[in-house]
């Protein structure tokens, strides 16, 4: 009986070690624009990422729960519930989670300074990287007026974006039936419409200017659903994208590199899109557009 119990315990230890070894390990991860509570949220992909990833700190950079959408219609499948349960489990098991509300979950902004387990809510936060660089994080909705978009136009734009995402969803069903991987029609259109590109550029400039005034080395934001990792002069600009069309996130590797990564549904893993080395060696940047 004791031998059998020891063998079972040994097998359990072995399984745990294999699970840990199979996980991708990061020092920090930045996620935003998940939009739980909407049909376009890729909750199942995000759940897979969270379960196979180990990180010291997880930053939720706004629009995690889409309260705007849920006011119009309640939509909450089990996969969305599982994402929240996984986040709670990670916090209880030592992952520090910092939640920076956006515009779709702006009701949480009034809880600035709130702490529970290893979860904190803040309007802004500064992360110090392994190499000592200070990275400011914010959602980015505060710059809508500088991109010539008021609150009313923002909500109108959201409705039009919902239509585009509906087309995106229908196209994805057809591509899945034909055996093709996920491809974002919404991103494809945004990258080829001049007005959209102008708005993205104005947003980037506004964020970089704000971060420069704060005296930090870089800034990570979300809001516009346009993933990017680049250098703007001496400033690092990172947008972690979203989980409704791009399925992207920003990560700090164990070596201190800043990475833009994208979920690959066929490989059931994240792949590297671009990287900026922030270690002791000279800065090196690789760029690739996400579409």
Coarse morphology: globular
Strand adjacency order, main sheet: 4-5-3-2-1-11-12-13-14
> Can you summarize the main beta sheet?
9 strands, mixed
The share of residues in helices is 25-40%
Number of helices: 7
Strand content: 15-25%
Mean pLDDT: 84
Task: Give the topology string: H per helix, E per strand.
Answer: HEHEHHEEEEEHHHEEEEEEE
* Spatial extent as radius of gyration: 20 Å
Which ranges are low-confidence, i.e. pLDDT below 50, for 5 or more consecutive residues?
Answer: 12-21, 281-291
Could you tell me the number of beta strands? 14
Structural class: alpha/beta
How far apart are the termini? 58 Å
Characterize the structure shown.
The chain has 291 residues and is α/β, with parallel strands linked by helices. Helices cover 36% and strands 24% of the residues. The chain contains seven helices and 14 strands. The strands form two sheets. A nine-stranded mixed β-sheet has the order 4-5-3-2-1-11-12-13-14. A hairpin with a 5-residue loop joins strand 6 (125-128) and strand 7 (134-137). Helix 2 runs parallel beside helix 4. 35% of the residues are buried.
């Amino acid at each position: 009986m004791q031998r059998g119990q020891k063998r079972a315990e040994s097998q359990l230890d072995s399984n745990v070690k294999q699970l840990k070894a199979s996980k991708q390990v990061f020092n920090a991860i930045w996620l935003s624009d998940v939009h739980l509570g909407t049909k376009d949220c890729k909750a199942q992909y995000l759940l897979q990422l969270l379960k196979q990833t180990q990180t010291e700190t997880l930053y939720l950079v706004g629009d995690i729960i889409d309260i705007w959408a849920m006011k119009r219609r309640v939509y909450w499948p089990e996969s969305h519930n599982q994402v929240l349960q996984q986040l709670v489990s990670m916090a209880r098991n030592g992952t520090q989670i910092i939640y920076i509300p956006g515009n779709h979950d702006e009701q949480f902004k009034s809880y600035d300074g709130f702490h529970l387990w290893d979860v904190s809510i803040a309007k802004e936060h500064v992360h110090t990287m392994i190499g000592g660089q200070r990275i400011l994080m914010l959602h980015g909705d505060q710059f809508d007026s500088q991109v010539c978009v008021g609150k009313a136009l923002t909500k109108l734009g959201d409705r039009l974006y919902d239509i585009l995402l509906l087309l995106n969803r229908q196209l994805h069903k057809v591509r899945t039936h034909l055996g093709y991987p996920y491809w974002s029609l919404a991103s494809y259109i945004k990258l080829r419409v001049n007005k959209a590109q102008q708005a993205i550029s104005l947003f980037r400039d506004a964020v970089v200017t704000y971060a420069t005034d704060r005296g930090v080395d870089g800034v990570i934001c979300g809001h516009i659903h346009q993933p990017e990792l680049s250098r703007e002069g001496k400033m690092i600009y990172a947008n972690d994208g979203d989980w409704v069309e791009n399925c992207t996130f920003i990560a700090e590797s164990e070596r201190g590199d800043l990475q833009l990564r994208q979920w690959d549904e066929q490989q059931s893993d994240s792949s590297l899109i671009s990287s900026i080395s922030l270690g002791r060696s000279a800065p090196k940047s690789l760029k690739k557009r996400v579409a």
